[in-house]
From TrEMBL:
Descriptive protein name: PDZ domain-containing protein
Record keywords, A-Z: Hydrolase, Membrane, Metalloprotease, Protease, Transmembrane, Transmembrane helix, Zinc
Entry-linked CDD domains: S2P-M50_PDZ_RseP-like (cd06163)
This protein's GO CC annotations: membrane
Cofactor(s) demanded: Zn(2+)
PANTHER family registered for this protein in UniProt: MEMBRANE METALLOPROTEASE ARASP2, CHLOROPLASTIC-RELATED, REGULATOR OF SIGMA-E PROTEASE RSEP
SMART domains: PDZ
TM helices/strands, residue ranges: 91-111, 290-309, 334-355
Chief subcellular location: membrane
Residues covered by the PDZ domain: 116-183
Organism: Candidatus Taylorbacteria bacterium RIFCSPLOWO2_01_FULL_48_100
GO function terms (MF aspect): metalloendopeptidase activity
Top-level taxon of origin: Bacteria
Family the UniProt entry places it in: Belongs to the peptidase M50B family.
Amino acid sequence: MTLLLFFVILAVLVLVHEAGHFFVAKFFKIRVDEFGFGFPPRLFSVHRGETRYSFNLIPFGGFVKIFGEDQTEEIKDGEASRNFSRKHRGVQALVLVAGIVGNFLLAWILISAGFMVGLPAPAGEEWGLPVTDAALTVVEVLPDSPASRAGLRAGDTVISFSQNGRALENPSPDFASEFIAETKSGAIDVAVKRGTKLLSFSVEPSSEVLEGRPAIGIAMDMLGTVRLPIHRAVLEGAKTTVFLSVEVSRALALFIKDAFAGAADIKNLAGPVGIAGLVGDARAQGVAPLLSLTALISINLALINLIPFPALDGGRLLFVAIEAVRRKPIPAKIAQYANATGFFILFLFLVFITYHDIARLFN
């Protein structure tokens, strides 16, 4: 079920992105030769009008083949006006950026829907939103920590801690930390709610997690639910989309900077396998967390595509900008070579990240 849900989410994200290119190209009377889900080799396709709709073997992506985009197609009489490369640079930029805009709009819609359903949020007045049913929640589990080895996950709602007759029910973060720190030896029983399930874990604190005091390797906060009427949900959805976009941009810029310095940490990166695992975790927590995760993936997809790297929309936008300054097209062979090289590098990076995703499953 998780795998099926992952592919449904992936299909929605790809279709929204490529549909942005597709509809804006159609709006400006540019011919679209193919709308593909996944990357070749092609499994099957159907023709509707002038466009082929294809389903391809490699499911992690998609594409729209726009007439004239690679500048190699033969232009017959009467077709020049429908050729992408013959359009004004501003029109070309709008077609290229449309997919990115589509992903931002999708994130806005999903987050707004999440606010209507009820999104998890930290308790406290600093957010300015009405938070109800606040409870102690695990917000992070450190890798290779006692909590991680025991099976605790981010999103678990803590019901109680207990050990040798000592019990702490419905705790606050401070009292929970004190309870764990006062443990001299032996395991603590941690009762949690995960989705609709009640679970119990035996976790033995360690002094290696935090220097000088026993800890189990979790970060906790009081989280509740924010549920808003539609008009306010749409407004807060827009604000949250902007906030998340800024935060993801900062993280992405920092990663790229570290990558050039040879100090990038790939532990927090997730490829298709890792994202599928996150989808499974979000599904267990409910509809709202799943909507939030999908929105976050959509924002990541939009921002990654903005990077001025060949084969990405940002790379093509860079070429359009260079052509606008030069007032003449970049030679087709140079553009083709750059895009093919960029695609190959991105594919290798995907394989590399997927390998690490799978390796983490066996650690």
